[in-house]
Amino acid sequence: MMSRGVRHLMTVVLLSVLLLLFYLSLSTEPLSPLLRASPHSPSILNAQHVRQETDGKSNRYVSSTSKAKDSIKRAADDAATIKELRESYLFPPSTEPYNLEEPSNINPSMGQAQAIDYIFKAKRDGFYLECGGLDGEVRSNTLFFERYRGWRGLVIEADPANFAIMKTKHRRAYTSPTCLATTPYPSKVVFAQNSNRGHIYNVLTYDDAPAIGLVNVQCFPLYSYLLALNTTTVDYFSLDVEGAEYKVLETIPWDKLDIKTLSVEYFHDAEGKVAIKQLLESKGYDVYMEVTDPNNLANDFIFVKRELMR
Ligand SMILES: *[C@@H]1O[C@H](CO)[C@@H](O)[C@H](O)[C@H]1NC(C)=O
């Protein structure tokens, strides 16, 4: 038989526990939407959450563009676009000695660079554009041209973790911690980091790699980068962006540029391989060959401007 005092005490304790639980349920933030987000529900993303998620491991290559700028759709060739790109997003070529993991590997490309060098008959002093650049060395399609053919170029890599490693390799190319836009104007995206399978988060790919990290990344149209570098001629454009290839190709003003050859990975695009081929064929290109690899480390078309093959 419990005394009245003990029962009273137990009631007070019970009520306190209930109150505490109620308080905790109010004060605990619901699970961040990012942690629950499925790869194809970007609508629940909000930029504020992304910044919170990434601030802990942010580095100086993470874009800090203000929200206000996102709403302005500046043309790819707008002077303000070019100025912003030049001043904030383009790093000049390194003048330091290379710091490569495997300096004796003359051509780490999976076959794309070998095909392009063959097409150009070992041409010297060309200009390349590579996106994504990964760490600037592993399976790089452009390092060979830089080291052994004296080409100049630009390497774009959206994942700040990969970009930071690339910077340590001292590429003699312009580098940019950004992404090729899928829009004909600069746009900011959420980028899903995943080593060599990172991609723009809301681009529907048919085999989406899970996001290991999510970061805000500033994208510019391809045309803007070339104008920022005072060129409209590209000898070789290596495009490998894990699913956004078709959409990037759609933004290119082909009549204003002279892109002579391309390698385009077709494996991850929701639009499909045939659509990529047809798009480039309609722009005056022919498939020269396909470069594939048994472990899917390459699934690329090599395109050559039709007039060059005559
Ligand atoms: C491009 O031209 C501008 C203006 O003449 C110049 O300031 C800039 O250094 C040039 N950039 C490159 C990469 O050639």
TrEMBL record:
GO terms for cellular component: endoplasmic reticulum membrane; Golgi apparatus; late endosome membrane; plasma membrane
Pfam families: Methyltransf_21
Residue ranges of domain Methyltransferase FkbM in the record: 130-286
InterPro entries: EGF_Rcpt_Signaling_Reg, FkbM_mtfrase, SAM-dependent_MTases_sf
GO biological process, alphabetically ordered: endoplasmic reticulum to Golgi vesicle-mediated transport; endosomal transport
Signal peptide: 1-27
Keywords: Signal
Name of the protein in its database record: Protein Star
Organism: Hirondellea gigas
